[in-house]
Design goal:
31% helix, 176 residues, alpha/beta, 5-stranded mixed β-sheet
Length: 176
């Protein structure tokens, strides 16, 4: 057995005893760029199964590592400037930092770095990244544009569908 230099101990503070983390990231003060934060702060958690951790990750960067490594599955919601029509929802299944799109906004350099660290220490959860296409970032704007706001319904539906798949496919403990 390989001895770990920095042994990991999962604790209930970081995972609340849950297997799944739904993490919204983005900058709330930059308009559509904060779509992930808007999602987790406005979602009705009662519409989801129990035993899921919802977290506003903001632009937390490295501070999010203990939360990611303490869950088996991380479902991340974030904005991307990928040239698609604003409000387009896409699913990516990144395994390495190079799998993340280059067009993600600046705070995601921290996300890519986190993935490198989690991979290096073999603590990488299964990551499902839902991106919402945006046209621009508006400094000091705390509301979403109509197209991006409307996409949150699709994001919720897609995440609920994914959770149903995970329940049957991966034997994840989820209480309905």
């Amino acid at each position: 057995m390989k001895e770990e230099i920095f042994p990991h101990v999962s604790d209930s503070f970081h995972n609340n005893g849950n297997d799944i983390l739904i993490l919204g990231i983005g900058n709330y003060l930059m308009g559509d760029e904060g779509v992930g934060v808007h999602f987790v702060n406005n979602v009705d958690e009662s519409e989801f199964p129990k035993n899921i951790t919802f977290m506003d990750g903001g632009t937390g960067g490295f501070l999010l590592i203990p939360y990611l490594e303490s869950h088996r599955v991380a479902i991340i919601v974030d904005a991307t400037m990928d040239g698609k029509e604003a409000g387009t929802v896409s699913l990516l299944k990144p395994k390495f930092s190079n799998d993340f799109p280059l067009s993600l906004s600046g705070h995601n350099f921290g996300l890519k770095d986190m993935v490198e660290i989690l991979t290096m220490f073999e603590r990488m959860p299964d990551i499902y990244l839902y991106t919402v296409s945006i046209d621009n970032m508006d400094p000091m704007v705390t509301v979403l544009s109509p197209k991006v706001q409307a996409s949150l319904t699709a994001v919720k539906a897609k995440i609920l569908g994914l959770i149903e798949e995970l329940k049957t496919k991966n034997n994840i403990l989820i209480e309905s």
